[in-house]
Specification:
globular; eight-stranded mixed beta barrel; 6 helices; Diaminopimelate Epimerase, Chain A, domain 1; alpha+beta; 307 residues; 20% helix
Amino acid sequence: MKRRYVTIDVFTDRMFGGNPLAVVLDAAGLSTSQMQAIAIEFNHSETTFVLPPKQPDHSAWVRIFTPISEVPFAGHPNVGTAFALAREMAERNERVPGQFVFEEEAGLVPVTLLQENGAVIGAELLAPEPLSRRAQVTPESAAACLSLTAEDIRTDRHQPQVFSVGLPFLVAELASRGALRRAAPNRAAYHEVLPLDGARSVYAYSRALGGEPSEAGSDIQARTFSPRMTEDPATGSATAAAAAMLAEASHPSDGELILRFVQGVDMGRPSLLVARILKRAGAANAVYVGGRCINVMQGFFYLPCGT
């Protein structure tokens, strides 16, 4: 059976920036093992598979695979999949809705389209779960995962800890942009620390502080390292978790906070992720992450329905 795919660069307005995503647009009938094999073949950080929704008032059932396994939720796959579906509908002269609602393992994920001059330019997702705070590790352990020293870990706001709004990450704040630049995954330390409370990857960030340059007018600079010892150019789900945690640690206790995260700079794929957090009584009541996208490739492959 002939199946169509597109690739999208997410959280960027330039081709070959941001985080690449493959979207299989007509995945009905594919088995789980076939989807996993296709994700391995594309070898992007994630590949999404669009299937008919289980409930007719939802937009699609979306399954997300890394080259290692299926995941219940991820950020850039939702943003990129919504962008891809909207562009497909526009090319067919169909009415493009303002929002998609995707069924995923983590729950329902509403994704609002971003438009400029009548054209869809990106999307913004709503995280499917409230912020959860899970296991902590010592600064020494977090530093070892990143080939750094304990002095490179900043703990005045939080200890290195697993946070999640749908997909868990071990989150560590670093003391400087220089420490973030020097970070590199250490396989032996990863195997000692991870997986931990569902987290398999480390998300390291540094705050833009006085005296240090701020990339693209950002508030936060970040990097994510996977268990494959690879770096992710833009990690929406980790950004959402970090944004929720930072919002809950800031004032005031009610209102909207917007944080701009830059990621991927040190690997040559700069990405800009904009997080919007709605606070109520000091808690992150809703967490949104969005950004721009751009089409890169499209094509076909032939694969029969799975069993």
